[in-house]
Amino acid sequence: MPRLSRVLSLFSIGLVGAVATGSIAVSAPAVAPQVPDPYYPMDGNVGYDVQHYDIHDTYRFGDGHLSGTTTVTLVPSVRLTSFNLDLLLAVDSVLVDGVEAEFDKPNKHELTVTPPGALPAGTPVEVTVAYQGVPADLDWNGESNWLADDREVVLMNEPHMAAWWFPSNDHPSDKATYDIRVTTAAGREVISNGVRVGRTVDGDQATTHWRMAQPMTTYLAFFAAGDFAIESGRAHGIRYYNAVSEQLGASETKSNLDLMRQSARITAWLQDELGDYPFATTGGVVTGLDVGFALENQSRPTYPANMPLTIVVHEIAHQWFGDSVSVARWRDIWINEGFASYMEWRWREVQGGATTNRTLRDYYSYYKDVRGFWRLNIANPGPALHNLFNTAVYDRGAMTLAALRNKIGRADFRRLLRRWVDVNRADNATSEQFEAMAETVSGKELDRFFQVWLRADGVPPNKDRFGL
Ligand SMILES: [Zn+2]
Fold this sequence. Notes:
eight-stranded mixed sheet; alpha+beta; binds zinc ion; Neutral Protease, domain 2
């Protein structure tokens, strides 16, 4: 999640004015009778399930031009005479199983493909799209998400990033595996998700190939390219690959590599807390570009320079909460952000810092008179980005979990988190499913508890305040 830098140091900078000002009502989509998500009606498409993305992009530093060919392996869930993909770039050609298909861009965001013959349900097809453009010039719904300068590019955003660099079914509910190949100047490094398969040099160009073999949602796919200091290996039983921009200068490059070296240790600690790490490698990328947030790109989060260690804990906790267990709908965002924020509290506690209950009480004292903080329904905050990523989604979410731990007891709470990531591994889930599992694991009726903590407009009443 874009964790906004303004919320990083809640107590040190004391931002009373930066919290929610109110929730917004979400009206039914006017676009189509069936869309994957009413928050963003143009995101994603119905009628098929993507299995795999084979992306090969070529990126040119200097003018920022990107061209590419992506083969999307998908299985129609119904007989399809045409279907849509999401892509902002201009399209040159589309093949379906190697045969030229008609295509149209009815608007900036959509690519409509009409294959020569109808596609039967249940039979996989390969859709190959060739495209090009200057992603920095592209915007959608007021978002201009491409982040680059003459020496470096890093793709990191949520909920929208994929449409700037490959065609996709752009919604978390359709997860797939990935091969990602990026060709660029041979002097630059290219970092992406998962395992680095190899690199081939052809004249002054090099192609670096990465593979994510576990299902991944579209917004968590990324690459970074530029001048990076790299460290890779194995620590705490886990493979890692870290990269820090050399644009930061020698001293900061070194201190940020030191920070990234903590990734393997934190991954191992989270594994003890939550159960097996969901992916084959860990690590992180620190960009030299000016970005106000970190993002939990799958297996390899991206960070601005000089983050506190707790932000690394937050982003790696997302590998379980958000990346492996992904939101079924964007309204469920607190099951990503509340949980990752809670794990920061838990980390401090086991490191001998403030206990989780101390932090819960401190947050309560801080927020109790902040009207807007309690007004937002964090289990349905609304699609505006200042609501989806509102401070309350993070902090009220973490408070909910800390209070729940008191309410059901530490042993049941630990069982609950471990069961949650186990049952929903590599899948999607909703807030309601978590609430139901909390009741099953604890044997307690928790409707009212979740109502006052997640949804009610107001401070939780005394008896629910700390779950005690
Ligand atoms: Zn987050």
